[in-house]
Every structure is written in C-alpha cells, then in structure tokens.
Amino acid sequence: MFTQSPYFERLIEVFRNLPGVGRKSAERYALHLLSMAPERVYDFSDAIRAAREHISWCPICRNLTDTSPCAICASGRRDRATICVVEQPSGAMAIEKGGSYRGLYHVLHGVLDPLEGVGPEELRLDLLLKRLEDGEVKEVIVATNATAEGEATALYLARRVGAQGVKVSRIAHGVPMGGGVEYADSVTLARALDGRSRL
Q1: 89 assigned to some structural domain
Q2: Model confidence pLDDT, tens digit, residues 37-80
C-alpha cells in the first residue's frame, strides 16, 4: 500500500516539523498535496523556495525582511526613541496589526532557557545593547511572552538595559499568562502596550 512508501513517510515527517502539526494533520496535508495538480504543487514548492532565498533577518532588528535593512528600521516616520523587544517575528507582526505602536523592534528569536542551552549569546543580546550606545533610544519595551522563560528574559533585559540608563518597561498583562503575544487580538495588544509598566 502507498501509505508505507518512504516518500509518503518523509512528506509526513516534513509536515510534522511545523508547529502544532501532529501525525494526523501531517497525513491530511500530505494527502492533500498529493491530490493537487502538479503545477499547483510546483507553485507551492517554488513559493517556499523563493521565500527562503529572499527573506532573511534584518541586520539591525533581526526581524524577517526581504530588504536590508527592513522597512521599519529604514523608515523615517518611526519613533527611534523606543524599541519593542519580542521573542519572535510573529510577535512584531501581531503588534504591527494593532496599529498603535510607532517605534522600532528588536527580535530575540527565542528566550533565555539555560536548560536548553540558550543564553544571552545565543539570543545575540549584544546587538540590542549596541543599539542603545548612541543615546537615541530612551525606552525599551519588553514584550516577551508571559511564561517562566519570557519573564526571566524580561528581568535579565531590565538589568542589562537599565544599567545603560535607558528606561525599561514591560507590556501590561492584557496578554493571558502562558499565552503568546502573537495569539492575542489587536485590541488586547493595544491595551497591553498602552498600560505597560516600568520593570
């Protein structure tokens, strides 16, 4: 039977690498892909390949971009005195959708997690601290998720950034505990940003 094919199994395993996708969902995706017209499958794979080749990290804020620097870092209309620190690009995307934040971003691509071997060096926190050296930034808003690791990262940032004389604030807990910034609705995010408190 074709379901025992190594090609089918490999396709399932590839889909299982996606967040939140278990075996059954991966099987459905694989079956759907195999039932698509060949030209649609090739369009799908070409889109993935093109995105991977042309989208990378901004050298300033580490957000995803197809330009260097990204459009937000290059914009003259953003508030350069404020940087919002998020765990992942999805956090910056969620805050942008809220429409109320006009400052810059810094994306960590993770959180401090000593048990997993993730320290300040792996998060490249040196890049964030370097952005503060010229004195233009007056406030860093920490928008890490409300998890144990997110809170530990926020406290670490408060110490390091605060030592450079920059105000550090934390988004208000309109975002549910244990939840991610990227899953909150835009109104909740806007209130969380407006109600941020100093760390």
Answers
A1: yes
A2: 999 999 999 999 999 999 999 999 999 999 999 999 999 999 99
pLDDT number for residue 2: 66
Q: What is the extent of the structural domain holding 172?
A: 64-198
CATH of the domain at 45: 1.10.8.420
Ramachandran bin of 131, using left for φ above 0, alpha for ψ from -120 to 50, beta for the remaining angles = alpha
pLDDT digits (tens, 9 = 90+) for 115-136: 899 999 999 999 999 999 999 9
pLDDT for position 31: 95
Task: Report yes or no on 59 lying in a domain.
Answer: no
Alpha helices in the chain (DSSP H): 6-16, 23-35, 38-54, 71-74, 89-98, 125-131, 148-162, 186-194
Distance CA 123, CA 22 (A): 28
State yes or no: cis peptide before 120, omega within 30 of 0. Answer: no
Polymer length in residues for the chain:
199
Task: Tell me the C-alpha distance between 63 and 65, whole Å.
Answer: 6
pLDDT band at 153 (very low <50, low <70, confident <90, very high): very high
Segment (H or E) for 170: strand 167-170
Counted domains in the chain: 2
User: Rounded to 5 degrees, what are φ and ψ at 116?
Assistant: -100, 5
| CA dihedral of 106, 107, 113, 117, whole degrees rounded to 10 | -110
